[in-house]
């Protein structure tokens, strides 16, 4: 059984009732994998909620493990941002924290924005956004 951290793109697709993502999530659970998120994804989702989506968002997050963010995740995210910046690539703080949470959870994540997660420590599953 593995933990798979869901990025905000995946949660939004679930929230909006996109069947392809719901099917992938069901398949993930059938395989015995455990979906999770971190506080960054919760914040990003609630920041963009439409008024009618609040109850559904609450229900989605109640069914997921919330991977904690602590100093170790902050340190890892900062190190990634520094390393990539030294090579001329700017990574978003939120994406680095989400990726650090994925490493804490086992190193696997699902996202519609694979390009935002170039860290070799993270195994990225591309779940196309908006399908």
Explain this structure.
This protein is α/β, with parallel strands linked by helices. The protein has a single domain (3-126), classed as 3-Layer(aba) Sandwich (Rossmann fold). 51% of the residues lie in helices and 15% in strands. It is built from six helices and five strands, in the order βααβααβααββ. The protein has helices at 8-15, 19-30, 39-47, 54-62, 71-86, 93-105, and strands at residues 3-6, 34-38, 65-67, 108-111, 123-126. It has a five-stranded parallel sheet. It is globular and about 40 Å long.
Class by alpha and beta content: alpha/beta
Give the CATH level 1 class. Answer: Alpha Beta
**Total separate domains:** 1
As residue ranges, the low-confidence spans are none
The share of residues in extended strands comes to 15-25%
User: How large is the radius of gyration?
Assistant: 14 Å
Attribute tags:
131 residues; alpha/beta; Rossmann fold; 5-stranded parallel beta sheet; 51% helix; globular
Topology summary:
Layout: E1 3-6, H1 8-15, H2 19-30, E2 34-38, H3 39-47, H4 54-62, E3 65-67, H5 71-86, H6 93-105, E4 108-111, E5 123-126
Parallel strand pairs: 1-2, 1-4, 2-3, 4-5
Helix pairs in contact: 5-6
